[in-house]
Amino acid sequence: MALSMPLTTLVILPVTALIVTAVSTLLATASSRLASRILVRHSSSTVSFPCVDAHQARESRILSSIPSQTSPDATETGPEPPYARPLPTSYHTYHHSGPLALTYGSELPSFDMAYETWGTLNAKKDNVILLHTGLSASSHAASTELNSADGWWEKFIGPGKAIDTDQFFVICTNVLGGCYGSTGPSSFAPAISSSSAPARYGTNFPVLSIFDMVSAQFHLLDHLGIDKLYASVGSSMGAMQSLAAGWLRPERVGKVVSISGSARSSPGSVAMRFAQRSVLMADPNWNKGFYYDGLPPHTGMKLARQIATITYRSGPEWDQRFGRMLRDLPTPATAVGAVRVPALCPDFLIETYLDHQGEQFCLKYDANSLIYISKAMDLFDMTLSALESLNLTPPLPAPAPTSSAPSGSPKRRYASPPAHLTPHPPAHLPDLAAGLSPLANTPVLILGVQSDILFPVEQQREMADALRMAGNDSVRYYELGGVWGHDTFLLDVLNVGGAIRGFLS
Amino acid sequence: MALSMPLTTLVILPVTALIVTAVSTLLATASSRLASRILVRHSSSTVSFPCVDAHQARESRILSSIPSQTSPDATETGPEPPYARPLPTSYHTYHHSGPLALTYGSELPSFDMAYETWGTLNAKKDNVILLHTGLSASSHAASTELNSADGWWEKFIGPGKAIDTDQFFVICTNVLGGCYGSTGPSSFAPAISSSSAPARYGTNFPVLSIFDMVSAQFHLLDHLGIDKLYASVGSSMGAMQSLAAGWLRPERVGKVVSISGSARSSPGSVAMRFAQRSVLMADPNWNKGFYYDGLPPHTGMKLARQIATITYRSGPEWDQRFGRMLRDLPTPATAVGAVRVPALCPDFLIETYLDHQGEQFCLKYDANSLIYISKAMDLFDMTLSALESLNLTPPLPAPAPTSSAPSGSPKRRYASPPAHLTPHPPAHLPDLAAGLSPLANTPVLILGVQSDILFPVEQQREMADALRMAGNDSVRYYELGGVWGHDTFLLDVLNVGGAIRGFLS
After folding, report:
1. What value, to the nearest 5°, has the Cα angle with vertex A408 and ends A407 and A411?
2. Which of A72, A238, B170, B390 has minimal CB crowding within 10 Å?
């Protein structure tokens, strides 16, 4: 029996042990990790693992791009994060020099907000659409004169498109907490004294809420002299911000568009984001958030993005797109009747797809931004009880619109929705309706996708139900089919774009 | 603007650099990782991260349990994996001294198979139920005289229970590739020569298929003199094995029970298992599968289990069980109106639940077993085209049972199922029906759960449809509601147990 056999010998070379001791003295916290690395492994696999070697190869590439500390040309500045390397000449930056009070008790002493615009602000300044992004997007929603690259919503924004720039002046910001020009954990905190060295926030950055992100945006609107938005538009986390904007300042937001969003993050979506944060924070390079002077947690970021990608698409899409197909082999087996030996590294196309998505993303975004912004999504909850626990007092709704109904047909107010969209309304629905009451007089478009597993359609229905229960009789509600899952808002120009265009007109 | 400010200084202590050089010489492959660790980080967080410290604390505990190499008592054997520490006196072991040919072309020179039994084998040896486990379970399905601890299916097996040990002789094995007594990657490979040191397989272990696992079980049955099973029963991966057993030897398997299984792994389930393997293989301690003489990849295992747990339960259960509740704080805020500052480490109960599940599991199971067995699940595909690509020729079905129908009512054979369970049968359904043809005359119970996201109900329906299309008119098919998701088979004694009992009687 295997278990009764003698076990493999463990060897530690004396010189290596000496090094361990030295390192331990210098860096006590790292010692156990180092010790684990220098156990000499005398067995080795006859199998190759390109997916594992990829992490080390990536690390070598990053290290080789860091200026050598011993070369005469060495600067004193350390590496710039890769995502920050393009010079920020392609967007505008609003600098807010005063403090921004935050939901969870602290404040930012000042902040920057990157933004881009499309279309022309009219004389009355009443044609403004504020566009909110998903978790990791920049302000570059569409190409501009400053940056001709396609934006993340290129097909939705432009002359004659769903968000028609012949009619509207569109503003998109990089979200507070992000890493594409707005203040976030990778930003330098204002120096405490003139003699102290500048330092990045790292995890000394305060926990943000979706409301904080929107508050910062209203400061930008103030700066631009824009009193009232024609509409607030967003998808995914942007839908949360869109709703929060209409809630925070009902009198300043004409219409609200929420696409594949949520008014109350569910434990299921928290779980998926928790899994991402966990793999990221377990990467030793994350170093509790202080990695800006060394290697970023690139492996953790890749793993996190792989998990995220699973939540962005849907099983039915993968059934159609990948099925059980395998990657092409560099040297296909040619022997007749030969059985292909499966690899433990990515082999199915679904695996190579996820691997590729992770690899593409892992150096493009700041790990701490991912942690803080995904946490803000988890924390989002517009039930009255949750808002009250944050000392957020619901403002009054905007004044009810003048009825355009013919006389003799008084405008009807619903005490409860005409019919629940969901046959089994959740217990928190009245609480959510009470929380959403500031939006009672704001026209709202709710659009959801039946194959979305991250913001499931039940959450879309409960949002619409709660708004109607709050007395809103201007809720437009659509559900889309299709197989694109959460990413539908990026892809389905015909249906998503059509619904937006109809609602805005 | 933040980006134009001077950057943080990077410092490398000379003595540390010297050590890097020495270590690099010794262990070239580890050098870049080491270099990354000894960049001196001079910023630090004012926030504590107990979820990150937990990984180091666990590592210290494991290291302190490894016998010191310099102490006079040091053995030459290295640490025993924690999961293997209980002595294997609580199960039987069948040793197969001959080679086992494997699906993917190689062979195991010999193998062990751990098993436990319940009930009494009758004189005809025709009351045997072979029970197959899910991915990580041991042979300990229920308590025995040798091991009084509750088993993983304790409530389902025993006198008068769903699997009635007053009637049946039940055998449960630890799966081939596992780490609870059966041969797997953590086992020692037979020595090539008498002078060579014994070495564990690690990732030199061959890739396994579900069919290989079942082949090994048939060798055990041969050894026990059991010609024919009354039934083959399994849930999750066990359901795949159960189906494979009936397929491989139709004449030796009387009935097949498949609970929350699949006849063809979908890309969606492959994706979830790929995410688990990825985080595990990215743990530097995994070391391409050769960690048995040092620290196991405990952090990777914890992260993998967190992801797995998300797939085992369901969002609706978490809505009910956790909602948006937060963990109790060690020192609750008492100030009136104080806002609780959220933690980036687990704070919501859903997060602490996932964290706990990962922590509990991470040292209980062998990482390589997880990789190999989850891969075998991904590879499982009973379409005829997939079977043919493995040179697996479908055997003939068992002889059709003598009709018990009254004369004048001839037994009807279906050319196609009487009605598809799924309104949109997948394109591969005829291929799957052809593949499953050896089971045409075997009574099969298919049971699925509507809230299962890992083995979704569509897969249950396609299995039943395909069997009926293959001419099987003894398919019993149930769908369960409820919120327990994939784990329903472990929890729902009333419905799952009842269906099994009814089918077996």
Report:
1. 80
2. A72
Which stretch of DSSP H or E encloses residue A128? strand A128-132
Asked if residue B218 lies in contact with residue B485, where contact means CB atoms within 8 angstroms, the answer is no
Question: And the tokens for B246?
Answer: 């009936």
Q: How far is A473 from chain B (nearest CA, A)?
A: 28
For residue B123, what are the CA distances in angstroms to B126, B128, B170, B225?
Answer: 8, 11, 15, 11
Nearest CB to B299; choose among A282, A310, A371:
A282
pLDDT digits (tens, 9 = 90+) for B324-381: 999 998 766 555 568 999 999 999 999 999 999 999 999 999 999 999 999 999 999 9
Q: What are the structural domains, with CATH classification, of chain A?
A: 91-265+383-395+423-504 (3.40.50.1820)
- Distance from the first to the final alpha carbon of chain B: 76
pLDDT at A201: 97
Continuous H helices in A313-444: 315-321, 349-361, 367-379, 384-389, 429-435
Q: In which band, very low, low, confident or very high, does the pLDDT at A2 lie, cut at 50, 70 and 90?
A: very low
| DSSP H/E element including B480 | strand B475-480
3-state SS class at A84 = helix
Contact (CB, 8 A) for A90 and A114: no
Higher pLDDT, B500 or B333: B500
What is the token pair recorded at B194?
Answer: 């008498």
Q: CB-based contacts of A89: which residues, under 8 Å, 6+ apart? A: A146
Contact A37 B284 (CB under 8 A): yes
Q: How far apart are CA B22 and CA A236, in angstroms?
A: 50
Q: Which ipTM was obtained for this model? A: 0.86
Chain B residues touching residue A38 (CB < 8 angstroms): 23, 26-27, 30
* Single pTM value for the model: 0.87
HEC sequence for B34-66: HHHHCCECCCCCCCCCHHHHHHHHHHHHHHHHC
Look up residue A66 and give its two tokens: 């860091």
Count CA atoms closer than 13 A to A487's CA, side-chain side.
Answer: 13
In the set A138, A236, A242, A374, the catalytic residue is: A236
**Weakest-pLDDT range from A400-404, A432-436, B123-127:** A400-404
Q: Chain A partners of B291 at a C-beta cutoff of 8 Å?
A: 41
Long-range contacts of A411-419 (CB under 8 A, 24+ apart): A411/A473, A412/A473, A413/A471, A413/A473, A414/A468, A414/A469, A414/A471, A414/A473, A415/A471, A416/A468, A416/A469, A417/A465, A417/A468, A417/A469, A418/A468
Instruction: Name the pLDDT band for B386 (thresholds 50, 70, 90).
Output: very high
- pLDDT of B143 > 80? The answer is yes
When CB atoms are compared, the residue of B36, B44, B288 closest to A49 is: B288
State the Cα–Cα distance between residues B448 and B459, nearest whole angstrom. 8
Q: Which amino acid is at B446?
A: I
